[in-house]
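Kindly go through the entry underneath: sequence plus fold tokens. Please state briefly how this chain folds according to its tokens.
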Amino acid sequence: MSNINRRSFLKISGATLIGLTTGGITLRASAQEKLSLDNPSAKALQYVHKSEKDGQDCSNCMHIQGDANKDWRPCALFPNKLVANKGWCAAWAKAN
């Protein structure tokens, strides 16, 4: 059994922290891809880029995230994808 001294522990912890941070940056960067209408999840939830429902679009849905001034934003229902502010899907729920 190997003993890990304090210095080794700090090196391993620091490397792990850097790896997790870099991984988080990579995940955020991949979220820049717009959701395709061919995506299986988009099809299952009947997602469209332009809502035909009065008063219902992604911009006023509880699942939308990110900057309200952007035309495309992250959605909790479609991980690592961006949805159109004017879009809609069957899981739409009015934001508070």
DSSP finds two helices and two strands in the chain. The first helix runs from residue 6 to 30.
